[in-house]
Amino acid sequence: xxxxxxxxxxxxxxxxxxxxxxxxxxDLADRLNTSQRMIAHYExxxxxxxxxxxxxxxxxxxxSIEELIGEKLKDKKKDKKDEITYSIMKRVKIIEKLxxxxxxxxxxxxxxxxxxxxxx
Length: 120
Fold this sequence. Notes:
By secondary structure, this protein is mainly alpha-helical. It has helices spanning 2-20, 25-32, 36-43, 51-61, 65-68, 76-97, 100-116. Helix 1 (2-20) packs across helix 6 and helix 2 (25-32) packs across helix 3 (36-43). 12% of the residues are buried.
């Protein structure tokens, strides 16, 4: 019974932590010298890797094994913040791939909107 509860939480926990770190499945796979498909497999809620893979995942994410297996459960408010952070990080990675001229245009727009809304 205990093992089943770990399996159910592991995939979701892995996905949330990966996103919190601003990583894609491809980024994490690259750190582990594996495929994106394997990371997707681990993130399925009905799968969990062997303990040696859990250790490697924790090391790649720079967290403890306990955190990765969900010993510290997050509240829903934090999960929503993580989703926003992941969304922003995805867009930052896209911006990094744009030509410098387009990057500067985006930054001018952000600065203009921040000034208009009095955000520092």
